[in-house]
Amino acid sequence: MKNAIKSGKTDASDIADNAFPGRYWHALDGGRTQCDLCPRACKLHDGQRGLCFVRAAHDGQIVLTTYGRSSGFCIDPIEKKPLNHFLPGTPVFSFGTAGCNLTCKFCQNWDISKAREFDVLADAASPEAIANAAHDLGCKSVAYTYNDPVIFLEYAVDVAKACKERGIKSVAVTAGYISPEPRKEFFAHMDAANVDLKGFTDEFYQNLCSGHLADVLDTLVYIKNETDVWLETTTLLIPGQNDSDDELNKMTTWVVENLGPDVPMHFSAFHPDWKMLDIPKTKLETLTRARAIALENGVRYAYTGNVHDFDGESTYCHGCGQILIGRDWYELSTWNIDHDGNCNKCGEKCAGVFESSPGSWGSKRQPVRMAEYGISK
Description:
Elements: H1 11-17, E1 20-21, E2 25-27, E3 33-35, E4 43-44, E5 55-58, E6 61-64, E7 69-70, E8 72-77, E9 91-96, H2 110-113, E10 123-124, H3 127-136, E11 141-144, H4 153-165, E12 169-174, H5 180-188, E13 192-196, H6 202-209, H7 213-226, E14 230-237, H8 245-258, E15 265-269, H9 284-296, E16 302-305, H10 310-313, E17 315-316, E18 323-328, E19 331-335, E20 366-368
Parallel strand pairs: 9-11, 11-12, 12-13, 13-14, 14-15, 15-16
Antiparallel strand pairs: 1-6, 2-3, 3-4, 5-6, 7-10, 8-9, 8-20, 17-18, 18-19
Helix pairs in contact: 3-4, 8-9
């Protein structure tokens, strides 16, 4: 069987054994069930999985097969998500599951997001265990990342609820490919989000991601205008695919006009991976050019990523030009923001969610064994 699990169980038995009731679906004529979580609207017979692989039809409903199962837990710097204006310098407790509802040929986490065997789900934890671990380890937030959290919505929402009870904030790292109704529930429980704006043509999304740009733009506008979620975007610049001056001009102009000038934009470097091994890695000059275009078009906070570039990674006051937060990779240096998030030179407000002083986590990456925090499925 194509999707057999390595343990020897059939795919159908794995679905049955790990079936957590999903939301957002409806029955169709002919015995099929439609998943309404994302614009893909997979129509499934019992025992079939959607394209994301983790949502399946079982007993006439859609179920989530990865609830409580993770590809691993780790403490990261919040800047790695990347979020530069949300609790800078603090540690974030990060985890993901498996699968994805897009098929990006350039995926940089393909071993997790494209997984079709659940051996990658080597760790497990209840929502309460995750919240307790994050709290005990001194993390300010929990990030749903590595693969897209919208596909494990039920698990992510339950974790977010448990985290809120412990004073821990929730961060979504997502491509934003989600339908309007589940989108309301998902982002109602998030405090911050970094949304991948992968390109700015529908051709790019269709040919390289099997998706549509309009659905992502709708999500971005919804987050900015209908929620209190702190929002930043990331674009992985791929040579010859989405890095032209024309596309970058259109993208950054759209962001300013529809999301406002205060939404930080990150331009990160591609390296050959997954199904695009023949494309060269992105040059620093390309990232610098993208950042310059964004700033020229009115984006107040534009960043280069995946490279050592102090100027491109640091935050500057849009009022007087003073450096507010100095960054080298994930290490913070300069800090010229007062306790209200204002420039300490001219008093201009720096958009974001800040504490009176920066965190000191630095660039450390610390794997976490959840067995120490009470595993519960």
